[in-house]
Design a protein that fits this description.
Creatine Amidinohydrolase, four-stranded mixed β-sheet, 20 strands, elongated
Length: 364
């Protein structure tokens, strides 16, 4: 059973429900269900009402749900079939005629149809987006400690595997070794498919490891993250196999400075796009702005990609105790790429970097 304060989270959601004028709210996205109830199963729906909250799941999870919920503010109901449809049927059984919300961005059209059919047309359903995700943006002290530990684990593993980065080693073998070592240190898994991209493949920001072997005199990008006690880390380092030419050294220095500039403006109240603009301004001065083809970062927590997004046009103000990635990069088609990524906690005084792996340009 988790010890995080679900009752306080439910109270915050109920305030949002009042603002949104709904009397019931159905949560179906598994990370959101966990955040509000502590249930980790992959088949469940949480029905939140002003005076009660009920987790609906099937008989496969009876024991697990009972243990994870414990004496919490959430009740348990074992159902057959779709938990979402069962939640609708539960409201219909109680002759609920108010307005009910559901996570429209997290539900398929077919699931929404089952929900509405199960409720017999009694509730007036309203699709919502991002209600629980907005609550998750600001981390509680225990969440921050878990994320510190996940960041520390990833940092230790990437340092451990550096001796394995040498010509002849295959991308997929290094990726497998990284994920194996993360699990050996207690991770429940990788936060995403580990990226190991060498040579020209490094120009693909979301490349996946292949059977390609590393070669001398090429860049290797390693992007990895661990899930530890449900919370994610995300870390990227770039290595050169050999003595790097001055063009790449200059590119690496530009990315280092871009990351530092982004961290400088990372503070509560700053618009998310200001972080991105700071990184881009540095790369512009180096003549590399067009080589930067993605946003500067994103929120991090129960999922590896959360709000806020640190990109152009994102005016949402940053909040203290949120955790984000700062990951500027430059990419040259047919040649390779350079990216440096760290996890950063937003504090009133600025940003605290949680990942600790060396950031200097490694030439192996």
């Amino acid at each position: 059973m988790v010890s995080l304060p679900q009752s306080k989270r439910l109270a915050r959601l109920r305030r949002k429900m009042e603002q949104g004028r709904v009397e019931a709210f159905l949560v179906t996205h598994p990370p959101n269900v966990f955040y509000l109830s502590g249930f980790t199963g992959d088949a469940g729906a949480l029905l939140v009402e002003p005076s009660r909250a009920t987790l609906l799941t099937d008989s496969r999870f009876t024991t697990q749900a009972s243990e994870e919920l414990g004496p919490s503010a959430v009740g348990l109901k074992i159902v057959k079939g779709s938990p979402a449809a069962a939640a609708g049927a539960e409201l219909a059984r109680r002759r609920f005629r108010g307005r009910a919300g559901f996570e429209g961005a997290r539900m398929t059209v077919a699931e929404a149809a089952r929900l509405k059919k199960g409720s017999g047309g009694r509730p007036r359903w309203r699709a919502t987006e991002g209600w629980v995700e907005a609550l998750r943006r600001v981390k509680e002290p225990e969440e921050i400690e878990r994320m510190r530990a996940a960041a520390r684990l990833a940092s230790e593993v990437i340092v451990e595997v550096l001796p394995l980065v040498r010509p002849g080693v295959r991308e997929c073998d290094l990726g497998a070794e990284i994920e194996f070592r993360m699990r050996k240190r207690g991770a429940s898994g990788a936060a995403f498919d580990t990226i190991v991209a060498s040579g020209p493949r490094g120009a693909l920001p979301h490349a996946r490891a292949t059977t390609k072997a590393f070669r001398a005199n090429e860049l290797v990008v390693i992007d990895m993250g661990a899930i530890l006690r449900h919370y994610c880390s995300d870390l990227t380092r770039t290595i050169y196999l050999g003595r790097a030419p001055s063009r790449l050294r200059r590119g690496y220095q530009a990315v280092v400075e871009a990351q530092a500039a982004a961290c400088e403006v990372l503070r509560p109240g700053a618009p998310a796009e200001a972080v991105d603009l700071a990184a881009r301004e540095v790369l512009r001065r180096y003549g590399l702005e067009k080589a930067f083809i993605h946003s500067t970062g994103h929120g991090l927590g129960l999922e590896v990609h959360e709000e806020p997004r640190l990109g152009r046009g994102q005016s949402v103000p940053l909040e203290a105790s949120s955790v984000v990635t700062i990951e500027p990069g430059v990419y040259w088609e047919g040649s390779g790429g350079i990216r440096i990524e760290d996890d950063v906690l937003v504090l009133p005084s600025g940003g605290e970097i949680l990942t600790s792996a060396p950031r200097e340009f490694l030439e192996l």
